[in-house]
Amino acid sequence: MPTPGRRFAVRTVDAAEMTTLSGLFTAFARAWEFGRSFGHNKDAFDDCMRDLDGPALATGMVPPAGYLTHISRAHNLLTADLTQLDWFASSLSFYRDHYAHQAHPSATFAVVLSTSDRRRGLVRERWHATGTTLVEID
């Protein structure tokens, strides 16, 4: 459970720029400031996403209570290669578990998908196909 009074780090990425895996890597790298050494591949992405608290810890600051990524226009996410959505969904669960159990101090990791009402069913269907449980927010 996050410590009271600590804030979440929140970033927004636009899925219209993330129709490919390369676009996803670029958008997240920009939003979360991965740095110039980011390798733009799955292993490098995993490393960076598991180290979001690294910059705070390196400078002696208290890391945020959690990390929230808002994915706008989520109906566009990985549409050029929907087979990558399974990997991405399982990665998000992995990061959630990492921050809940291994990060210092235990932090929360979450993703919010937003889309138009008209496309909500499509997004729900794609994510359910990955085995991901969604919580809907109105």
From TrEMBL:
Residues 9-106 form the Barstar (barnase inhibitor) domain. It comes from the Bacteria. Belongs to the barstar family. This is Barstar (barnase inhibitor) domain-containing protein. It comes from Gordonia pseudamarae. The lineage of its organism: Bacteria, Bacillati, Actinomycetota, Actinomycetes, Mycobacteriales.
